[in-house]
Amino acid sequence: MAYEEQVAQYYEDGYFIADDAFDPGMLAPLEAAARRAVAKVQSGEVVVKTEGISTGGPGDDTRDILGLIAPEFGEPLFAEYLGCKAIERYMHALLGPDLRLGWVAIFVIPGPEAYDTGWHRDFGYEERDGSEMVEMEILGRHRKGVVKWHMALVDDACLWLVLGSQKRYRTAEEREALINGHFVELSDTVQVVLKKGQTVFWNGNTIHRGRASEGMPERLAIMGALSQHRDSDRPQQVEERFGWRMADNIRDGLPEKTRLYYDRWRSLQQD
Q: Cα(60)–Cα(39) distance, rounded to whole angstroms?
C-alpha cells in the first residue's frame, strides 16, 4: 500500500498496518533488547519511576515499561529505532518534516494470562461523558499532531478499534460501553491482526480496547510516538510520566536524529 493510501486510511478509519516500519536488520536485535529490558525491570536491575530511572532496587512486573532511552538500561537501540529512516518516512507522511520526541516503551504480557482493558478513548484526564459539543472539541484538540504506533515483536492480535470513531461523537451504544459496560460487543469494530515485525499506526482518540483470551502465548510490543513540532508551540509543564527525561544524563547518549527530537521536546518543558 502506498504512503498516500495509508495516510488516507489513517484519517478515515483511524489506523493502518505497515510491513516495513523499521530499518533492515533491526527486528531481531529489537526483540532481544526488549527481552533484556523486561528482565532488567523485573529483576530490579533497572528501576523505572516517573521522577527518574535508577539501578538496583525491587523488581517490578509492570506491563508498561518506559524510560528505554535512559542510559541506565544500556540499550541504545531503542533511541536509534525512534529516529530511524523507516519511522521517519511514515512520520513525515503523517505529520510533516519537523518532529519532536513522543515516547518509546515496551508493552509486555506473559502468557497464558488473559486481559481486557475494556472500551475507551485515550483521553487522559479529559471529560469522558460530555455533551456532543464537549466531546467533539476534545477530539479536535487532544493529542493533535501526535501519531503513535505499536510494533509487534511477536504475533499480536490484541488491539480492537471502532472504525472511524476518532472523527465523531459516540453513539448511544458506544456511550454505554465507554461509561458503564466496558466489555460489551460493539458495531463496526476491527481486530488488528499483526504478524511479528508488522506495525500498526493508530489514533488513540478512536474507541478501542486491548483484549486477549486466556492461552495467548505472550504479548511483546514496542509502543512509540512522535509529535509534530511547530515554532508556535507553547511551553508546558512536564507530564508526570516523563519527569525522568529531565535528567542531565539523557541527552548525551542519544543519536543525532533522536537528540534533535529530544531537544525540541526539552525546549518546551517548564521545570
A: 10
Burial of 9 (0-12, 13-18, 19+ CB in 10 A): middle
CB 220 within 8 A of CB 125: no
Return d(Cα 106, Cα 35) in angstroms, integer. Answer: 9
Give backbone dihedrals phi and psi of 28, rounded to 5 degrees, phi first.
Answer: -60, -45
User: Which residue range forms the structural domain that includes residue 195?
Assistant: 3-270
Query: Whole-angstrom Cα distance, residue 93 to residue 70?
Result: 28
pLDDT, tens digit, 9 for 90 and up, residues 200-225: 999 999 999 999 877 778 899 999 99
pTM above the 0.90 mark? yes
| Residue 200 near residue 16, CB atoms below 8 Å | yes
Nearest to 212 by CA among 191, 181, 195, 189: 191
Domain count for the chain:
1
| CATH at 92 | 2.60.120.620
Q: Which residue has the cell 493510501?
A: 5
Distance of CA 93 to the CA centre of its chain: 18
